[in-house]
Amino acid sequence: MPAHNGTEPIADDELLYRRVPVSMGWYTEGKLSPEAFDPRKDETTGISVYRAKYKSIEEVAKGKSKKGYYVAVLRAGDLRQNGMEIVPQSTPDDPGHAEFPDLTCHNRLMPEAQERKLRLAGLCLSVEGPFPPAT
Fold it and tell me: Taking 60 as the threshold, does the pLDDT of residue 32 lie above it?
């Protein structure tokens, strides 16, 4: 059986996590804003998500935000059924990193990107947290 190193295809039943900064106000009163999926300036090849088979929600929630993070939970198969591609994009220090190549900092203002962000927010299974800032 081959070792899993993050390069294997993402299964339809895999859960994916997207970190959402508390400070941005993108999750309030139980509602997730499509802006939670807005590509950052450095997301040139696709917005980042993390594969649950490699990282816990608590690990994903660790970051530089002074106010901490929420974590949006998505299922890969739901995204594919809605026309969105998810690709493994492992790094040496993070085998669970993956990306949505159809949503980048370069196309973020296009109508198609706005529609994808809306769809992602609607497909979110849950939002966990908030998790406290890393110390």
Answer: yes
The helix/strand/coil state of 15 is strand
For residue 6, what is the DSSP state? S
Burial state string for 75-95 with b = 16 or more CB within 10 A and e = fewer than 16: bbebbeeeebebebbbeeebb
What number of other Cβ atoms are within 10 A of residue 114's Cβ?
A: 15
Beta-carbon-side half-sphere exposure of residue 8 (alpha carbons within 13 Å)? 11
The CA distance from 105 to 74, in Å, is 21
Q: What's the confidence (pLDDT) of residue 2?
A: 46
| DSSP state string for 36-88 | GGPPPTT-SS-EEEEETTT--HHHHT-SS-SS-EEEEEEEHHHHHHTT---EE
Smallest Cα–Cα separation from 74: which of 132, 14, 33? 14
Cα gap 117→100, rounded to integer Å: 11
Which of the four pLDDT bands, split at 50, 70 and 90, describes residue 3? low
| 110 touches 102 (CB < 8 A) | no
